[in-house]
Amino acid sequence: MTARGIECFRQDYGGLANMLVMSLGGLYSLVLFALPASKLFTNTHSSELLSHSHLLKDLEANQAPIYSLWYLLQKLIVGRDFRDGVLTASGLLLLGGFALLKGVMLTGLLRSSGYGFIKSLFGGILLGTAVALPLPFIERYSPLMASKTQYLGTIPANTFMSATQLIANVGVLPAFYALQLWGIRKSQSNFVIMLLTCLIATVAKPGIAPALLIGIAGCIAISCCSSRKITTKQLWQLVIAAVLLLTPSTVISHFYMSGNGWLSIEAVIAPLATWQAFSSQIVVDFLTSFAFPLTVLALLFISSKTSESRLKPAKTTLSGLAPSIFTTVAALLMFICFAEKSNGSFVHSGNFIWAAISANAGWHLTSLIALKSLRPRSQALATAILCLEAIGGLKYVTGYVSTGSFL
Length: 407
Fold this sequence. Notes:
The chain is mainly alpha-helical. The protein is 71% helix and 4% strand. A three-stranded antiparallel β-sheet has the order 3-4-5. Strands 1-2 form a two-stranded antiparallel ribbon. Helix 7 runs parallel beside helix 9 (232-258). The longest helix is centred in the N-terminal third of the chain and has 35 residues, at 3-37. The model has no long low-confidence stretch (mean pLDDT 84).
């Protein structure tokens, strides 16, 4: 086929090829989430998916406001019919839909970043499967369970047992992608798109809003340090971002915290209280949970210090990663410093830990996109780490299917 023929083929079938690749990524994600979901009705398997599907009935019975996008969508499906079978069916439909959307989104965002068809599909599969780096010689232990655990990292890039967290991870992916583009090119259009995607992420998981705002502020601060001045435009950008993100986050979080007097949840300063409940190996947890993005960051930093002209894009890539890093660090610090209590007892699966998990998912995505600016050997090393994290994810899912425990 001639060069002209190849170009005509791309024009005629490029869109179809993109659709097929994203569809394959979505189908893989659907099957992966279906593995643990298929065990919902067995007495030997514990799962948050079933409890999330039925919580809408409790919210309505206690006249508590609907504080999550998951329950809002479920309410649109079931109306006033709160029978267990209807709630379970609607929950499974939402779960399948968002699992499919997550795979489509991961593959599509990688495709938009310049990866080819095969690399986008392969990268989307790895990102959608990765949990944490498996360490075969270190035995995992959970104080919360008072036993050994198959949980590889307290802050995994993906969770397969939480319906509301699935929506949160789907919402955060375009936000981190837009933050990365804005970090590289601070145009007005990039700022508007970034704010809109961050707003979607906030509605999906309100706890991520303060971290996103810190990510935006950190990126603006870097620009001010580079130019040694702060402009009125930058100040207005920060004010607009604060109002747009913190307003819905505060309102929705108030609904969740108060629960109309039902939940009685409050945020308290309790350093490491939640983390220490899940694991007694915090340093190992951190390294395994963030192994891939930390590897990419180290390789980019090394490349940016070289004198080779072809590696100059690494410095630009680091600028693009800055918002992701600031946001993730902020979410991690909130998780470390704060906890949630209900009627005097800690709520271990609270907003702070879920926000950190969402941020990790977003940082994984932007790190894979940033990988393109490195040497092939460095790319291979980082990709191997991501492959190991994906193997850890498959090990986690199959471990749940065989043991019935998601911790």
